Every structure is written in C-alpha cells, then in structure tokens.
Amino acid sequence: MFNNGGIDIELMPYEKALRYGIETLTDVEILAVILRTGVGKIKVLDLAKLLYDTAGNKGLVGLASLEIDDLVKIKGIGRVKAIQIKSIIELSKRLAKLKANEKLDFSRSETVAKFYMQDLRHLQQEHLILVLLDSKCCLIKDMVLTVGTVNSSLIDTRDIFIKALKSGAVQIMLIHNHPSGDPTPSKADINVTKEIYEAGKILGVNLTDHIVIGDNTYVSLKAIGIF
User: Fold this and answer.
1) What is the pTM of this model?
2) What is the pLDDT of residues 107-132, one digit of tens each?
C-alpha cells in the first residue's frame, strides 16, 4: 500500500526509514523506532500508538509532561523503555536550546522566556534558575538554584553572588516556573526579587530581570515595575 507520495506505508519503521528517509516517518513510527520492540502480544507499533495516545491531544509535546512513573503505568512500558523515552525528550530539549542560544539576546525578556519555556512549563514543581551574564548580556551559564516553592528563606543570596563573581558575571537573571500555569507573581516572588536586586546594587552585579514562566505565557517582574 502506498500513500500519495508513493511511500509504502506498510513497511516497518526501520525499513521505511532506510528506504525513504527518517523524515518520512510518522510520530507514532518514530516512537516505535525508539521503543525498538513490543511486549508479549503487543506489537511495537501498537505500543507506540498507545504511548502517543497517552500524551493526549498535544501529541509529542504532551510526552514532555509525562514522568517516568507515568510512563511505566502504560502496559508494555517498563522502566528501561521509560528512561529511553525521557532521555530522547531531554536530548531534543538540549539540542533546541543549543540552537536557540546561537541567536539569543538575553537583554530581551521575551526571547529569554521563550528559550526556557519548554524546559519549565510542564514541570510539576517550581524550579528557580540563576542565569549568569557577561557585560554584553551574553550567557555564561545557568544553573538550578532551588526546587520547590520560591521563598527568600530557602535562597542563599550570598551564594548567588559568590557564584556570579566566580563566573565573572556582571549581570544576573532569575527565572522560575509556576506549575499552575498562571505566571502571576506571588508575594514571595516579589520579595525574593527585591532582596536580590538590592544586594546586587551593593555588589555591582545587576539583576536584569526575574521572569515567571507559566503555560506558554510569562511575566517579567522588571516590566511590571517591581524593581
């Protein structure tokens, strides 16, 4: 059987990729290649379809929100296959970030928010990221500071600036997510921002922004006049 492009759609994914190119594979077929084998009486394509359907109407994007414990609940997906799937998703994220970083302007909150959006929007806990920048607003490196509620009592302001100074950063940026999907800053978000901004003025390391990531939306605390 052939589709409109003349491709034999009854070929197994491996054979189809070899004959016509990987770009001709459907999303389900790509998942089948990653899974490699089915389990028991479940054929690999059927298992891939089950995995794809579990991700919901978001398709492959929906897989990013599934944790290992979610994946192993799918009949035929054990921990090894679950880790393989999560590893592929993580690899795709890192490749996307590396590509985006080539043209990223860290002086613009909009582009920075887009850069971190896919990493943060599906997380079930708040992650606070410290971004270290040079004098031209170019990325030196970033790191996760805390996992859990963003609260000044849990953040070592002194440690933030030690990391900045050791890395040669003269500007920093804070980014964190709201698992609820609503990026409206909390009172704790505002307090943390003000505390770090004031400390930065004393030490000569400028806080350029604090961005709160929601579900495909964000709020810049600098833009709304918090500092």
Assistant:
1) 0.62
2) 889 989 988 998 898 888 999 999 99
Please give the structure tokens belonging to residue 141: 């490196």
Q: What is the pLDDT of residues 22-62, one digit of tens each?
A: 888 898 999 998 888 888 888 889 999 989 888 877 778 78
Instruction: Report the C-alpha gap between 27 and 20 in whole angstroms.
Output: 15
Phi then psi dihedrals of residue 173, to 5 deg: -140, 145
- DSSP string computed for 40-54: TTB-HHHHHHHHHHH
DSSP state for residue 66 in the 8-state scheme: -
Q: Which helix (H) or strand (E) holds 138?
A: none
Nearest-Å Rg of the Cα atoms of the chain is 22
Judged by DSSP in three states, 213 sits in strand
171 contacts 208 by C-beta, under 8 angstroms: yes
Q: Which of 97, 100, 146, 147 minimizes the C-alpha distance to 119?
A: 97
Reduce the DSSP state of residue 156 to 3 states and report it. Answer: coil
Q: Token pair for residue 227?
A: 């500092």
